[in-house]
Amino acid sequence: MVPSQDEWSLTAELARLELDEGEAVRLASEAERMKELFLTMSQANVEGLEPTTHAFAGDNRVRPDSAVSFDNTDRFLDAAPEAEDEFILIPNVL
Looking at the whole model, is its pTM more than 0.85? Predict the structure, then answer.
């Protein structure tokens, strides 16, 4: 069952949203259309199909993880506004 126009208006009121009558009519109409689409999809024959979690099941395309030597840390620490030992200090955000 799809909510009626009055139910959409009440829901909007409870959520403290401004919803004029035209918007409530449109929302009720679009919800009814969504329901019809879901009913159409539920009638599709999916017997024998494997469940999928992603439309493009393929190999991961990231590069291999490997350690790389980096010896310019002093340059970055010198450019940081604040640093302590080998760490860049940042302001607390919480």
Answer: no
